[in-house]
Design brief:
Layout: H1 2-12, E1 17-23, E2 26-32, H2 36-45, E3 53-61, E4 69-76, E5 83-90, E6 96-98, H3 107-118, E7 121-123, H4 164-176
Parallel strand pairs: 2-5, 6-7
Antiparallel strand pairs: 1-2, 3-4, 4-5
C-alpha cells in the first residue's frame, strides 16, 4: 500500500514532489514548502489516501545545508491503516511555510511549538505566538546556531504564584472546623 500512496502523490502533485522513499517502515515524500496546504487537502480528502489524522508535526534543523529546515508532518489514515511522512523543505534565511491548520486543526498548536523552538513562520496561522517560552525570550532555542550561554531578559512575576496545597489545606480545615478537627 505504501508504494501506491507515494505513487499517487507523485502522479497528482508531480510539480510539488522533490523526492520520495520507502525505507525502514517510513513512507516519505519530500515536497516544496509552498505546496503544503494544497497537498495536505489532497492527502486528507482523496478516497485512496484518507489521511485524516495528523500524528505529529515537527522540524529538523540542518545548519550547514541548503535549504536549512525541514518541517515534518506525520499523517495517518484511521480507516485505511496507513501512514505517510511529508517533509517540506524550508529556506534558512527566511523560514516561511503555509499553515496546515486550516486542513488539520491540531496543526495550529504544533505549528506554534515549531515557531517557538525553531523560528519557522507559518503563513496564515491564526494565532502564531510563543507557547513554550515566555514572550520576552529572545531567539529560538532548538536552532543549532542558538548560543547556549546566551543570557535572557529577566521578567518580573505579574502575580503571586498560587499554592494549591495550602489552598486545599485551608479549604479542608475550614470545612472541618464546624465538626471534628483533623490535623494535616
Amino acid at each position: 500500500m505504501a508504494k501506491k500512496l507515494i505513487d499517487l502523490v507523485k502522479k497528482n502533485h508531480a510539480d510539488a514532489v522533490i523526492d520520495s522513499h520507502s525505507r525502514l517502515g517510513d513512507d516519505t515524500v519530500i515536497v516544496k514548502a509552498e505546496s503544503i496546504e494544497e497537498l495536505m487537502l489532497f492527502l486528507r480528502d482523496h478516497k485512496d489516501c484518507k489521511l485524516n489524522l495528523m500524528r505529529d508535526l515537527t522540524c529538523v534543523d540542518y545548519l550547514n545545508r541548503v535549504p536549512r529546515f525541514e518541517v515534518v508532518y506525520v499523517l495517518y489514515s484511521i480507516e485505511l491503516k496507513h501512514q505517510l511522512v511529508v517533509r517540506a523543505l524550508v529556506d534558512g534565511d527566511k523560514p516561511v511555510i503555509p499553515t496546515a491548520s486550516k486542513v488539520y486543526p491540531i496543526a495550529g498548536w504544533l505549528e506554534r511549538e515549531v515557531w517557538d523552538m525553531y523560528g519557522v513562520q507559518f503563513e496564515g496561522h491564526p494565532d502564531l505566538r510563543r507557547v513554550l517560552m515566555y514572550e520576552e525570550f529572545e531567539g529560538h532555542p532548538l536552532r543549532k546556531d542558538y548560543a547556549i550561554q546566551a543570557s535572557q531578559p529577566r521578567v518580573a512575576l505579574r502575580a503571586r504564584e498560587r499554592d494549591s496545597v495550602e489552598e486545599f489545606k485551608s479549604f479542608v480545615q475550614d470545612k472541618n472546623s464546624a465538626g471534628s478537627r483533623e490535623k494535616f
